[in-house]
Amino acid sequence: MRPARMKKIRAVILDEKVDPVIRKLHESGLVELYDLSTKLEDPEWSAFLAPSPSAEYGRNVASLTIKVSRMLDLFSNVSKGEKTGLSGILNPKVPEKKKLSFSSSAEIISHVENVLSCVEGEVSEPAKKLAELENRKAILEALKDSVKYLADFELDLKFLGEGPYTYTVSGLSFPENLKGLESSLTDVTDGYVEIVKGAPVNTGEKEQKIPIIVNTLKQYMDVVGAELRKSGFERLDISEVIGTPKDVFIGSEKELQSIEKDTKSILEKLNALSKKWTEEVLVLHEILEIEKERAEAYSMTGKTVRTHLVEAWAPSKYVKKVQEIIETASEGYSVVEISEPDEPVEKIPVLLDNKKAIKPFEMLTEMYAPPKYNEIDPTMMIMPGFLLFYGIMLTDAVYGLLLALAGVVLWKRMGKVSQGAYNLGYILTLSGLSTVFFGILTGGYLGDFMLQFMGMDIYSTGLALVNPLGESTYISAAKPLLSLGGIDVNNGPMTILLFSIVAGILHLFIGLTVGISESLKKKSLLDAFLGQGMWMLLILAIVTTVFTGNMMIAGVAVILVIALCMIKGFMNGGVLDALLGAMDITGFLGNVLSYARLLALCLATGGLAMAVNIMAKLLGDAIPVIGILIAIVMLVFGHAFNFVMNGLGSFIHSLRLHYVEFFGQYYEGGGKKFSPFKAKREYTSN
Amino acid sequence: MVFENPLLLGAIGAGLAVGIAGLGSGIGAGITGASGAGVVAEDPNKFGTAIVFQALPQTQGLYGFLVAILILFVFKSAPEWAMLAAGIGTGLAGLSAIGQGIAAAAGLGAVAENDGIFGKAMVFSVLPETQAIYGLLVAILLLVGVFASPGVTTIAALGAGLAVGFAGLSGIGQGITAAGAIGATARDPDAMGKGLVLAVMPETFAIFGLLIAILIMLGIMF
Which residues in chain A (560-589) have CB-CB distances under 8 A to chain B? Predict the structure, then answer.
């Protein structure tokens, strides 16, 4: 019921033997390395221990990682986006693990280099060609854009730019600036200028410009340039082309087409190469990442002249194994010491340790906060309550079946590649089964589908125990379930309300029991009594009242508890707190009433399903011929909507009852999660 | 019997249930939707998440719809004032959707930054729904005829609906607290427990409303 017990491992290892030890520990994934760097700032420690830098091979690994990542980028750019499709998402392929075993970083680096040079040998030439083609394509497209404005001119473009005596420039000018430009150019060049204008062209939305070609003597080049800039002239940069604009346009279009063809064939080639190599390169990427983590692990250790000090946390049950690993990997050149945790509890890592059947529910505990090291692990207590509440709130056998099926797909299929999907799938599968159970109990099959469309009233047949919205064979005004304090429990809603409140009180009572045993361990008897004990007495008093019918017992208990709350408040901080303390009882009452949501949400599912059925029936009856089709569409979408909305609602409300009402009695959380030093392997195995 | 046809009051109740709860849900879903539009503009992959959060404040409208259907089709024989009170209670309590919308908007914003907080943001965002659930609860209790006291059959029934309905507006305050708590939890995941305690506080008033409604229905004062 508590997180796994931890031990601290302290090992002094000869320098030459550290690497194999770190490698083996990393593969085993059994320990969490303890970062010594803060400890080493303490003068007492720094007298004989120096901080250790990351391993030297880390640098080579980093530079290789960059190369490998680049290769992966290239591959992902060229590979055709293969559609995974729904079946791909629902049943993902687990990559086959490649068995690779290395004993040193040098071996890994040379392996990576070998494979990489092999890949590069095949890939680099087409990749270079592709880059060239893309480059040329960009140039041609820019040229095409420029010459298309000059289509009117019958000029060989080779004359643009500087000639032996003249200077020619082409570009676009604003029509309104043209007059001024002409006169100013004539001024600065003493008339040695010729301006040829073309027909106006549209350059953008609603923007018209006039293409012009300006020819002048070479000696006026600079002044003409300055004058042009002033007028907002947009120069068309064309150089090293031969032929009229029209020819150039057609020529570049032709070339672009052939480039398109070449690019396509090269992309195909690269795509084939990427198919051939991607997995291999992913393997390289993974082993490099693992290597990087190892290199960085060194910086968590301390160093003497000839040895390293490694400290680590390990769960008690693995401690022997860890010691063995260190001793064998270092071939005996090490001293290992195992001790009880010597740090404050907040610093001891927390590893939840539940049986396999319960483990996925740790997800729900951790969503709130993992327990502190010396706190109770509530996972085992969440599981039954969560499933029970979920089932009651959704209560529909068909919805439950759908949910269980979705859960199985998530758990067994997508769970192969994602731990989160595995956990959620497992939880949903069980929740679905619970829902089926309660659905059958309350006769919920797509709400009252059978009554609306088949004329079969399940509640009059004895197949369903409770009717959430009214009376059934077993529970009706004629046959009340039981009578409590003047109120007959004689119909479905009342039965479920009674059940909800009883389940709530029991749930709270369990929480309080755990809380009191925790308090007794840590604090005084008085604290335990004021924290949990008096509420337990109150519950017991109310239960006794219900069975004996003696209102006195509950009344006295309530007054007593209010008084105790005020005393508690007074002890904590005076009169004001005492007054506030008196309000605690409403908080307690609120906790109990909060469980009434079980009834409300149970009715919401059944009621909305019924609403969908009623509307579908109305539509089907009202519209001739195609009415039946509309009714079917209404049923499918309506029930899908209701299923999703209430499925989600039940999940979170079930969680809420645990987080707010249940945890409030005993649980705080806030521990530091155990994060193992572990090689993450997806594509390789050791 | 005030009117010839008791269903007259029932029809008004049904209208108020759908109308007021729909108003709340519309505003709430609108607030979340605005946040969702911003999030989706940043990252189109978050569309699904945005839809899930926007679904939360829509439940109040569904409860209103549910009660309307129950009044009109199922519990036609319930006391007339009870039908009206059921509609008013569910409708007003459905305004808690405004608060839920605020909380869900904050939750969505936090999840856009950090996927890992999804579960926590969901739990916080669902807190302000309690008020609507109490409204639904009282409506059902009024309609199914568990209580036959004057508190249900006379105009007193309106008191029950108003108590749980107006107290349900505490959902707006709760939504604001929950939005703040989501922000705090996004910064420090360990703040969740304390954030929950603060965010549950405004629920106290909803519980007062529920209690008074139950007392009225029991006919304690007659």
Answer: 583, 586-587, 589
Contact between residue A167 and residue A265 where contact means Cβ atoms under 8 Å apart: no
Residues of chain A with Cβ-Cβ distance to B136 below 8 Å are 600, 603-604
Interface of A with B in 322-351 (CB under 8 A): none
Q: CA dist B50 to A194, A649, B32, Å?
A: 64, 16, 8
All residues of chain A having their beta carbon less than 8 Å from the beta carbon of residue B120 are: 367-368
Look at residue A672 and give its three-state secondary structure. Answer: strand
Determine, for residues A494 and B144 on separate chains, whether the beta-carbon distance falls below 8 Å: yes
> Could you say which DSSP state residue B78 is in?
S
Task: Kindly give the pairing relationship between strand A6-14 and strand A307-315.
Answer: antiparallel
Contacts of B196 in chain A (CB under 8 A): 659-660
| pLDDT at position A595 | 94
- Using a 10 angstrom Cβ sphere, with 0-12 exposed, 13-18 middle and 19 or more buried, the burial of residue A278 is middle
Q: What pLDDT, in 10s, does the model give residues B206-220?
A: 988 998 998 898 877
Cα-Cα-Cα-Cα dihedral sign, residues B113, B114, B120, B126: positive
Q: Of B117, B116, B134, whose CA–CA distance to B204 is shortest? A: B134
Q: How many residues does chain A have?
A: 686
CB B147 within 8 A of CB B215: no
Which tokens in the block code for residue A595?
């469980």
User: Residue B203: what residue type?
Assistant: E
Tell me how far apart the 2 most distant CA atoms of chain B are, in Å. Answer: 61
Domains of chain B by range and CATH? 6-218 (1.20.120.610)
- Quick one: which H or E segment has residue A484? strand A482-484
pLDDT at position A625:
83
Q: What is the pLDDT of residue A84?
A: 65
Cα–Cα dist A384/A389, whole Å: 9
| Range A139-145 contact pairs with CB under 8 angstroms and sequence separation of 24 or more | A140/A252, A140/A255, A140/A256, A140/A259, A141/A256, A142/A237, A143/A238, A143/A241, A143/A248, A143/A252, A144/A249, A144/A252, A144/A253, A144/A256
Judged by DSSP in three states, A609 sits in helix
Q: Which DSSP symbol is given to A193?
A: E
pLDDT tens digits along A125-161: 888 999 999 999 998 888 888 888 887 788 888 888 8
Cα separation of A25 and A258, whole Å?
Answer: 57
Say what percent of chain A tops pLDDT 70.
Answer: 99
Record: contact B133-A601, CB cut-off 8 A: yes
Query: For residue A336, what are its two tokens?
Result: 């290992």
ipTM value: 0.87
Prediction pTM value: 0.83
**Strands A201-204 and A302-303: what pairing?**
unpaired
Separation of alpha carbons A414 and A422, rounded Å? 7
Would you call A593 and B210 a contact, using CB atoms and an 8 Å cutoff? yes
C-alpha dist (Å) from residue B194 to A362, A513, A660, B181, B197: 21, 22, 10, 9, 5
Q: What is the mean pLDDT of residues A368-380?
A: 91
Residues forming beta bridges with residue A10, ordered by sequence position = A311, A337
Q: How many CB pairs under 8 A join A and B?
A: 114
> In A164-237, where do the E strands start and end?
166-173, 193-197, 201-204, 207-217, 234-235
Q: A486 falls in which pLDDT band (50, 70, 90)?
A: low
Res. A393: pLDDT tops 90 = yes
Partners of A482 in the beta sheet?
A489
A650: part of which helix (H) or strand (E)?
Answer: helix A627-656
Q: For the segment A163-221, what is each residue's pLDDT rounded down to a tens digit? A: 888 888 888 888 888 888 888 888 888 888 888 888 888 877 777 888 888 888 888 88
Rounded Cα distance between A506 and B27, Å, is 38
